[in-house]
């Protein structure tokens, strides 16, 4: 059985299905960019950690992490805090 675009999108009209399909393509492209930026952030974080450890410091700077959590929380609300925690975990690993 062939699935129509309206069935794939949950839309009830072909016009709405077209809008949804186009918007989903934009979301997919945005997600690819976001993933690339996260990977870049991870690489930059690794450089910072290496420099800190090499200089005799600790791997993690908790005051800096609090700044990041506050920044995301202020910009995105409570979900921003969860997002920042996930980013921090990806960039420094679990403590």
UniProtKB/TrEMBL annotation:
Cross-referenced InterPro entries: Chorismate_II_sf, Chorismate_mutase_highGC-bac, CM_dom_sf, CM_II_prokaryot
Listed GO MF terms: chorismate mutase activity
GO terms, biological process: chorismate metabolic process
Domain of life: Bacteria
Pfam families linked to this entry: CM_2
Chorismate mutase domain sequence ranges: 14-95
Residues spanning the signal sequence: none
Protein's recorded name: Chorismate mutase
Lineage: Bacteria, Bacillati, Actinomycetota, Actinomycetes, Kitasatosporales
């Amino acid at each position: 059985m062939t699935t129509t675009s309206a069935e794939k999108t949950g839309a009830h009209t072909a016009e709405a299905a077209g809008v949804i399909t186009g918007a989903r393509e934009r979301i997919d492209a945005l997600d690819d960019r976001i993933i690339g930026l996260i990977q870049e952030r991870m690489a930059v974080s690794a450089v910072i950690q290496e420099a800190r450890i090499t200089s005799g410091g600790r791997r993690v700077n908790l005051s800096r992490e609090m700044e990041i959590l506050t920044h995301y929380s202020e910009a995105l609300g409570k979900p921003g805090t969860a997002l920042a925690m996930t980013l921090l975990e990806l960039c420094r690993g679990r403590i």
